[in-house]
Design brief:
434 Repressor (Amino-terminal Domain); about 65% helix
Length: about 90
């Protein structure tokens, strides 16, 4: 069985109009979480490291990264700062 990359798997899924519609509705949330995970990994930090930096539990970071949690902007900003990053929101 050949393993697909996430990119090719995502591309294949988005060919389905219904999946694409739902993705477009919440895609920015997934993208934000993906970027935070990527930043954390590049910095060599664990979920526990981030949790300790912002005064929460590792399970809170796990919930954020799972995409099953609707975090507040305040929480997202804390995580971003712990990663040395900023969240910018543009409403055009």
């Amino acid at each position: 069985m050949k393993t697909k990359s996430f990119k090719s798997f995502k591309k294949e899924l988005l060919k389905d109009k219904q999946v694409k519609s739902h993705y477009d509705e919440i895609g920015f949330e997934f993208e934000l979480v993906r970027l935070l995970i990527e930043k954390r990994i590049k910095k060599g930090l664990t979920q526990k490291d981030i949790a300790e930096k912002i005064g929460t539990k590792q399970s809170a970071i796990a919930r954020l990264e799972s995409g099953k949690y609707n975090p507040s902007l305040s929480f997202l900003n804390k995580v971003a700062r712990a990663l040395g990053a900023k969240i910018k929101i543009d409403v055009s």
